């Protein structure tokens, strides 16, 4: 996850960009003018800045020049956003990239991924016997700033937890060897592991007994925090659940 400052004098554009960036997993700050932007950069030092050019008072060129003149701020990547295609001036003043309005979401996110210094969200353990699903979860989490460790069943997962405790566990239930239910039961037996949040992602139709078991683990000082049915949620929904769990723990 990267912290991004969006600077634009139009509130509607700010909100549109903010929503798109947050759906992509970024922490978003906003500023409606140049001086406010400089104050926020000095205060929080974001990973990247999206900077409109045409603003009243201090325009984007003046903000860019001020940023590059301060040694502590000069290394923050700046992506210029404007209706004026004057990229040569932008690059000459030190901009990292240059996007013309109206903005294309894919181009915007692609530019951020090229220039943002993404901070690691921590290590997530993905416990899933299907290699295709494991790879899907790996790519999704890594894109959101996570380091990922993989396990094909509960036994491998316990070995991973014993070696290095993850910040989060993404768990399938139906696996050979030790399944997800047995893994959760074993996790409960170790007080130092109970606080690791577990998100269950399963294709299994859960019985009332299954749900009672998983709800019980929630009451026993941690373990299972969410149960999601495969095929019924979007990537953004899962990432939002994960971020909310981690934020709540912090």
Low-pLDDT regions: 218-222
Please report which band the strand proportion falls in: under 5%, 5-15%, 15-25%, 25-35%, 35-45% or over 45%. 15-25%
Q: Name the overall outline.
A: elongated
Strand/helix succession: EHEHEHEHEHEHEHEHEHEH
Instruction: Label the CATH architecture of the largest domain.
Output: 3-Layer(aba) Sandwich
| Tally of individual domains | 2
User: Counting H and I runs of at least 4 residues, what is the number of helices?
Assistant: 10
CATH class of the largest domain: Alpha Beta
Q: Which fold does the CATH topology of the largest domain refer to? A: Rossmann fold
Instruction: Output the strand order for the largest sheet.
Output: 2-1-3-4-5
Work out the radius of gyration: 22 Å
Mean pLDDT metric: 83
Category from helices, strands and their pairing? alpha/beta
Largest sheet: 5 strands, parallel
**DSSP, total strands:** 10
- The CATH superfamily name of the largest domain is Response regulator
**Kindly, what is the distance between the CA atoms of the first and last residues, rounded to a whole number of angstroms?**
15 Å
Helix share bin? 40-55%
Question: What's this, in brief?
Answer:
By secondary structure, the protein is of the alpha/beta class. 44% of the residues lie in helices and 20% in strands.
């Amino acid at each position: 996850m990267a912290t991004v400052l969006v600077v634009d004098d139009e509130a509607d554009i700010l909100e549109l960009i903010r929503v798109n960036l947050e759906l992509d997993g970024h922490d978003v700050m906003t500023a409606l003018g140049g001086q406010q932007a400089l104050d926020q950069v000095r205060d929080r030092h974001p990973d990247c800045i999206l900077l409109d050019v045409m603003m009243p008072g201090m325009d984007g060129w003046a903000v860019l020049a001020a940023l590059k003149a301060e040694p502590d701020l000069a290394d923050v990547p700046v992506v210029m956003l404007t209706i004026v295609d004057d990229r040569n001036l932008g690059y000459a003043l030190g901009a990292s990239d240059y996007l013309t309005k109206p903005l294309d979401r894919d181009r915007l996110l692609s530019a951020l991924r090229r220039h943002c210094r993404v901070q690691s969200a921590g290590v997530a353990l993905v416990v899933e016997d299907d290699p295709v699903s494991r790879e899907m979860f790996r790519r999704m989490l890594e894109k959101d700033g996570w380091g990922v460790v993989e396990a094909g069943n509960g036994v491998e997962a316990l070995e991973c937890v014993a070696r290095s405790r993850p910040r989060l566990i993404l768990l399938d239930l139906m696996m050979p060897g030790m399944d997800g239910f047995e893994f959760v039961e074993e996790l409960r037996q170790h007080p130092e592991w109970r606080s690791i949040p577990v998100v269950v992602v399963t294709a299994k139709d859960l019985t009332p007994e299954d749900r009672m078991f998983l709800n019980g683990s929630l009451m026993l000082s941690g373990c299972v925090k969410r149960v999601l049915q495969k095929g019924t949620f979007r990537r953004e929904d899962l990432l939002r659940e994960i971020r909310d769990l981690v934020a709540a723990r912090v």
